[in-house]
Amino acid sequence: MPDSIRRRARSEREEIAPRGRRSDSIDNDGGIFRKGFASLTELALSGVQVTACAVDLESGKVLFSVDDHLSVPTASIGKVLLLIEVAARISARDGRATDAGTSAAKSVRPAPGAEALSILNRTAQDSVGDSGLWQHLQVPALPVADLAALIGATSDNLATNVLLRRIGLDAVRARAESLGLKRTLLLDIVRDERGPDDAPQLSVGSARELATLFRRLARGEIVDETTSALVRGWLSLGSDLSMVAGAFGLDPFAHVGTDHGIALFNKTGTDAGIRSEAGVVTGPRAGVAYAVTMRFNDAALSGRLAVLESMRTLGTDFLEYVF
């Protein structure tokens, strides 16, 4: 296809992409999320399955959505459900649950208690490759809270399996059900290879449920404020800023606090042909809870790079909204 025709087609797709306006009617020549919508539209036309949702952190208003009701594979995103169950048990057993409505509770990160410091050993049955640091370390056992921190920071697969051996998938599923999640599930332990008798995916989720879940975490509404704060703390350690969060200009290894007024906690999921991210980004003007999953043909590097570029373009729109 000649470049002139390709440019014209791209321009036409940008013109038909959904548009919106800032709530304060600032004229930004095309409206909020225009670039992100145009980028997602172009990907969808090329055969990429896109599911996405963004909601305003304060009002809960849906800012945009793309097939956000669909339950699709989300790779490691489902580990958030495990972290929620771990945090709820720590809060309950250490007797530190607090009123979710108190501003004082929201400003204090809970100190570790007996449950958080319980030591868990890794076994040969837990072993798995890919993401995570523990498989490369010599230490054979770690406290529960440290395992949760490893999952938040590096999506640690070995730590995930060790915690799941203690917690149990049934408990994680029950917790998800109690939170009202119907399309978002952690289906299995992490496996190097999936056989015919294994769940076909590690986790699935819908963009609407994930965006809402992260908004509730930000507002201290998941179980209680102490539980929510624990999960937020672990996720704020996340070092994967290769997707949506790549647009925020943060240090991948040090963004627990705010930087230029921007704060983030997020969880990513990566698998062959899957890039997924859910998170909350806040700035001086506003906050956004978001979830985006892309399923694509990963046969060529160009396809993967196009997906990542589109996710960062959407992140640029989020940054504009909150900043």
UniProtKB/TrEMBL annotation:
<dbReference type="Pfam" id="PF13354">
    <property type="entry name" value="Beta-lactamase2"/>
</dbReference>
<keyword id="KW-0378">Hydrolase</keyword>
<protein>
    <submittedName>
        <fullName>Class A beta-lactamase-related serine hydrolase</fullName>
    </submittedName>
</protein>
<feature type="domain" description="Beta-lactamase class A catalytic">
    <location>
        <begin position="54"/>
        <end position="294"/>
    </location>
</feature>
<dbReference type="GO" id="GO:0016787">
    <property type="term" value="F:hydrolase activity"/>
</dbReference>
<dbReference type="InterPro" id="IPR012338">
    <property type="entry name" value="Beta-lactam/transpept-like"/>
</dbReference>
<dbReference type="InterPro" id="IPR000871">
    <property type="entry name" value="Beta-lactam_class-A"/>
</dbReference>
<feature type="region of interest" description="Disordered">
    <location>
        <begin position="1"/>
        <end position="25"/>
    </location>
</feature>
<dbReference type="InterPro" id="IPR045155">
    <property type="entry name" value="Beta-lactam_cat"/>
</dbReference>
